Amino acid sequence: MNSNIKHRTTLAEDVETFITPLLSQDKIIRLTELKSITINDTLKEQLEQATPSMINDAGAKLVTIYGEKLISFLNVYLGTLGKKLDYRDGHIEQADNTAVQLLNELLKEALFAHLGLPRNRDGHQTPIDAGKAAIGLRSIMNVVTSATESAVDATSIRVYNDILHYYQSMQVTFGSFWLTLLTRILGIKATSQSESETLLALAKMADRFHFSKLNNAYTTLLTGDLNLSTFELEPFDASHMTSYQLNLAPNLDAQVIPPAWQKYLDGQWENDEETVTFILEWLATHLLLQNPGKVLFLYSPGGSGKTLLLDAIRAMLSPQLTASVPTDQLDRQFGLEYLLQGDRQTVVRANLVDENGIDKGIGIDWSKTKRLADINAVMNVDRKNTSSLLLPMNVQCTFAMNSLNVQTNNVETTYAVQRKVCLLRFEKSFSKEEMDEGLGQRMIGELPQLGGLLIQTLKEMKGRDDMVPKESHKMLADKKAWFASMTQDNSPVASFATERLQQKNDESVTRIELLDAFVAYCVKRDIPKIGFDSPRRFFPELRRVLKNNGIEVVENNSHTSPKFLNLIITGDTDDEAI
What we know:
Layout (H helix, E strand, L loop, with lengths): L10 H9 L5 H5 L11 H9 L2 H15 L1 H12 L17 H19 L14 H15 L13 E4 L4 E4 H16 L8 H9 L15 E4 L2 E4 L5 E2 L24 H11 L3 H12 L10 E5 L6 H12 L4 E2 L26 E4 L12 H7 L5 E4 L7 E4 L3 E6 L13 H6 E5 L13 H7 L1 H17 L9 H13 L6 H9 E10 H15 L9 H14 L5 E3 L6 E7 L3 H5 L1
Helix pairs in contact: 1-4, 1-8, 4-5, 4-6, 5-6, 7-9, 8-9, 10-15, 11-16, 12-15
Organism: Weissella hellenica
Protein name: SF3 helicase domain-containing protein
């Protein structure tokens, strides 16, 4: 997203951004079904006495507060008094405060009349019924838009933002705007349901469409919409149906890798053109706004530059379109929720995780990871305090870690997993003296040049009719060797069970005793526990190991003292030797 566009917080900015694209000028002019309004004699007399220049100057001031559309709405009522407001002929610096207050009061009267809401009387604020507000808003919408009787689904409504050049959730935009209108302009104390009710009322203003129509044909960049069929940049257009804007202004004339990127790639994969091509393709597929069909694990000791690559992707996409959900969080009930954007209705573009140390006790839910790497992945996302969503999981996942030294129990070695997992080994680590401290910033600064090369990369991928990044022979060999090593049972729990546990009828050992014995075993032998000192991981692994060792045990899961029956902990052979 363009960093020059500030988050809009004022009502005037809300009106300009979200109302202008929908309520056209001629539609507002055609507001002929006016509600009768009662103007007190003092206000009416003051308005009649106001000169055209006073009205225009005050109107120019109000436009800066509310936006031109609401002032055009106000003009309809001024016409009943024989007045007309032309704010373009007004001068803000000459605006008379009394005249501004008069027009503001008339705007309130007009809005209250159209919404059918009670006015505050005698200084007391009148609570508003959300249902009445909704009916009032519908009465306005039926005048300025085509009425429809079809059911309203607020979560599927999006509105094209002419400034950002993509569709935003109506729930994020109009809901908050109209609640602000009710409270800030009208001064009404709204009920807790006002926002959702008014949102549903406003649904008749917008075209509703399915998520499947979004981001299929175009990607919005800073300088235009990228056609995903031709990979040509075209002018922004609402018909392109995008809901993202990537923070990239590509130089389409770029033909070679820019200097900082060349230095970065040569530092690890010099003379390995296949792997460099994979990296370019992996970066390029972030522009597609679809799942690439792979999950990428970066691994090496620290100081190799993994984070530089992740930071560059974040800068290319914009931080708002990225998340950082570790592998062990994905299997939790609300784990996938953290992959949602701020509107909590659509997913981020990429999940980028630094130093995901699965060798330090963080496990991988391989079934969930495998599904995340499915090009057609659709997942049910649970959201706290609201209903779940069934969404296309178009999230590109890259996990960085210091090693792949995980244990067998953590790895699913099926072909389905191997096919969807990419392993990229960083060949070298650099000392502090060898590091180029400014390299990362230069890489980000060269993103426009790299962006042009990435678009060219996408064209080449389309030419081979395969939009999935192609792993190099070196990467495939590394992956084959790593998955092969996972067939060996080298879990510390396995060695503990082999050396210290025996099956013996009529004996038992408590869960606490088993876990304590395992921890003591690892400490004495200086064996990494790699997270198995957690009961959540130790006991499932223990059951697996015992079963593999042919030991059948029965568990007594009493609340007071859960036990493993027919099992004993033997003496430590080292102790006996001493």
